[in-house]
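Sync notes, pocket subgroup
Present: LS, DG
LS reminded everyone that the earlier model was apo-only. Rerun requested with methylmalonyl-coenzyme A included. Inputs:
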Amino acid sequence: MLLPALATPSSKIALRFPERELTYEQLAAEARRVAYGLVGKRRVAVWARSTPETCVVIVGALLAGVPVVPLNPKIGEKELAHILTDSAPDLVIDDDIPQGPPVDLPEPDGEAPALIVYTSGTTGPPKGVVLPRRALATNLDALARAWEWTEDDVVVHGLPLFHVHGLGVGVLGPLRRGGTVHHLGSFSVAKAAEALAAGGTMMFGVPTMYHRIAAEPWQAGSQHAGAFGKARLLVSGSAALPASVHERIEQLTGQRVVERYGMTETLMNTSVRADGDRRPGTVGLPLDGVEVRVVGDEPGEIEVRGPNLFLEYLNRPDATREAFHDGWFRTGDLAVVEPDGYLRIVGRRATDLIKSGGYKIGAGEIENALLEHLSVAEVAVTGEPDDDLGERVVAWVVAKGEAPAPEVLSDHVARLLSPHKRPRVVRYLDALPRNDMGKVLKRELR
Ligand code: MCA
Ligand code: AMP
């Protein structure tokens, strides 16, 4: 059973959001009504705002065995059209939450799809990663063992609910344990500190969030620093946590951040264990049941095998086939293995993937979107190091006629794709550097 705490619900708080709290009894009752209304649907899309209603609807769909496509509430028109065409949901759930009369709800098979999460590749539009219930259940249990995570934990975070980090680990994780999710609505350092002071035991965040905590002008020993210091675990993932941020957080709070390494297609692969050595720059050891190998000369590519893996890319048998090598999933991430087995991620095979604020962004999809703008003749998109975001999206543009103000192109991408994919910097050139074959030499743009 994916969510056993909902079978015999208690009066304990399951979900705490700024606007509302729900006990397990309330969540079970509301989610069941949603489930009754969804029985028989093939697939639904859900506007994944950071609200308790989003969680209720997704839990309801999971009870009904109906796969959910979570949608970024700020998604642009082109990306939305792609996702809806590709996933063809029977229903797009917004404010009008379906409800139906009570029916019997048998637990679906472990191989049944639970979530379809869209993730960017280097070129083309995002692909739908089909995640089975078995991947979520086994992975959340492996994380529980690594982090000594129990029903007594209150997980604090302000992550978006349309990705695996915030939804899979940050919401379904606590619910599988029978513990509490304390969602901040949106992330701010002050709200995170308050939630931890008010009883939060763990915090999940992307490195940008830890960078913002580290940048606060507090003193070690101050009230806010103390709130982070008394948490049982501060966990970072979705991108590399810079050693400088790790060290600053330790100075400030006395806590060493635990890093874990995951991917939409694999859920979580490795983590520093709660009782392990929290060395900066390392993502720890493979989780129980997950096989991880580094292939070729070091740094080599990380390949993964185990029950944590996705089923397929929706409607993309070609891409699914290409993603595997001898039955192992090729992550595209490059790593070295330290003498005690700890993994240290040192880079990525593809230069056309950008990680900004913990979001994966494909250079190709932004280039295609920019080429749809009337004043763009040619364009190349790169990622540049950014203290806060890890990497920032940069567009190198050859203008057609007069060059538009940078915000015009940024807004264009935000409107077509998603705000987090917008270029933060636009640089105009007379021509893009190209080789004899006409291919853009992105390395020369850095
Ligand atoms: C700005 N905004 C705009 C525009 N410019 N809206 C429309 N048009 C524009 N031109 C809005 C943004 O949507 C945002 O709203 C607000 O203005 C601020 O924008 P921005 O500066 O981009 O946001 P930020 O404050 O810098 O965001 C930093 C962040 C965010 C909070 C750290 O990047 C974030 O939530 N990252 C988490 C990503 C994540 O969950 N990744 C997991 C992937 P608003 O603030 O309301 O949105 S899963 C994964 O990687 C694997 C499995 C793993 O290992 O976890
Ligand atoms: P996504 O496709 O959004 O699921 O992003 C997955 C990618 O995020 C991985 O392939 C890694 O490149 C990156 N990632 C996740 N966690 C970490 C981490 N702790 N350190 C470095 N990179 C990470």
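DG: The chain has two domains: 4-344, 357-444.
LS: The radius of gyration is 22 Å.
Action: DG to write up.
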